[in-house]
Amino acid sequence: MKHVDEYRDQAIVRSLASRLAGQIDRPLRFMEVCGTHTMNIFRFGLRSLFPMSLEVVSGPGCPVCVTAPVDIDACIAAAESKNVIMATFGDLVRVPGSRGSLAESRARGAEVEIVYSPIDALGLARAQPDKLVVFAGIGFETTVPTVAAAVMQAATLNLDNFCVLSLHKVMPPVFSRLLTGDHRLDGLLCPGHVATIIGRQAFEPLAADYSIPCVISGFEPVDIMQALVQLAALAVSREARVVNAYPRAVDEFGNLRAREFVNRIFQPADADWRGMGTIENSGLSIRDAYARFDARRRLDLEVVAVAPSSTGCRCGDVICGRCRPVDCGHFGNSCTPVNPLGPCMVSSEGSCAAYYRYGGN
Amino acid sequence: MCLAIPLQVIEVRGTTGDALQPPSAIVTAEGVRQEVRLDVVDRLPVVGDYVIVHAGFALHCLDKQQARENLELLEQLAAGTDETR
Ligand code: SF4
């Protein structure tokens, strides 16, 4: 049994597109909140299949894009500490903080290594026992369990030269922030793998409190189109329910084992979001019991937010769906993937990069 | 970057609690093999099961029957006969 072709079947995608068009009886505006949704909607040309009356905007779903300048500053402070190797996902390296990026500190001599998973960072620590390896932990509910597993393994191995700078974020509080006030959204396309961890029911309070239909979606073209059909049906009949359109990966209560791992290592904390400020309990910090794996405590990182010099980058508005990338004056001129001004152009999952690469408007 | 395609488990390795050799699985799709960690998967898979993978870790396990039901859902979609709730 092989799956790939079925989930990308052109005929199914087209028939779903015509059902979507047939269902919509008024202009609708949906938000997707997942970097992979952003990317795949462009990559598979789904936008050209959306009816004119449907607008799908990207929300704060790209982990690199939502990382606040002050947190990039903390990464830089860590990278420039003595005897440190900073291990990070590639995209983060080029994201500007308030005083430059990790790429610039690397050029000044800091050791910055690109890794693909926290386990690679752990391997680096084992290979270089006389250096302190600091892993820059970005990402949402889906990524956090993998970092928790790495910390657990480091604890079992009694590995003393590995720690995590936790910049992790959780989704429900930022949804609440977005849906408070004037958002003009008729539905949320919810991130599938976040839901794999937190379960369908975790979205219930959002639907109820903000009267907004929510549909949990996978990432393949058929998944996304099918979820949009279901979301349109709910929006048209104004039913603020949470429908799970990704049952092969998501159940009612999520992955309890993964959540147990996360709870053992992390506790809720306030977090800063680019363009949105501090959001209460939207982040995770390392518990006291694992303090020796906490880069903030290991390195005494006290980074104060300074107002970044204004570049006119509108990423903060882009990730809240308040403007489209093409509404930014820099887009395609002074800001391109080769010379990015803001994180939404740096990350391959950012909307500015997707618009640039695939020509959106 | 999320991958929504279930990958089939062809081998299970390692032992729970062994930090040097933690449980992992060899998974395959379209002839590509990959080793994934099983630390945080909701249920430990057996050979033949399918897993949903993120960043080198299995997050969710499906048995053959569940994976087949999923494909049937797709076939119904193709036929336009599903009951969208
Ligand atoms: S186009 Fe560049 S400067 Fe403008 S919002 Fe996007 S990343 Fe920022």
Give structural notes:
The complex is a heterodimer of chains A (361) and B (85). Chain A has 17 helices and eleven strands. In chain A, helix 2 (10-23) packs parallel to helix 12 (221-236) and helix 8 packs across helix 13. The model of chain A has no long low-confidence stretch (mean pLDDT 93). Chain A has a domain at 66-170 and 255-298: Rossmann fold, CATH 3.40.50. Chain A is globular. Chain A has 361 residues and is an alpha/beta fold. Chain B is an alpha+beta fold. In chain B, 19% of the residues lie in helices and 35% in strands. Chain B is built from one helix and five strands. Chain B has one helix spanning 64-79, and strands at residues 7-13, 24-29, 32-37, 50-54, 57-62. The longest helix of chain B has 16 residues, at 64-79. The radius of gyration of chain B is 15 Å and the shape is elongated. Mean pLDDT of chain B is 85; it is low at 81-85. The interface between A and B is large, with 55 and 38 residues. Bound molecules: iron/sulfur cluster. Residues 313-315, 318, 325, 328, 330-331, 335, 340-342, 344-345, 352 of chain A line the site of iron/sulfur cluster (SF4). Iron/sulfur cluster is lined by residues 313-315, 318, 325, 328, 330-331, 335, 340-342, 344-345, 352 of chain A.
Compact overview of the structure:
The complex is a heterodimer of chains A (361) and B (85). Chain A is of the alpha/beta class and 361 residues long. Chain A has helices at residues 4-7, 10-23, 35-43, 63-66, 69-79, 102-107, 118-127, 144-157, 171-179, 192-198, 204-210, 221-236, 256-265, 295-298, 315-318, 343-346, 351-358, and strands at residues 28-32, 54-58, 84-88, 111-114, 132-137, 162-166, 187-191, 214-217, 242-244, 266-273, 277-286.
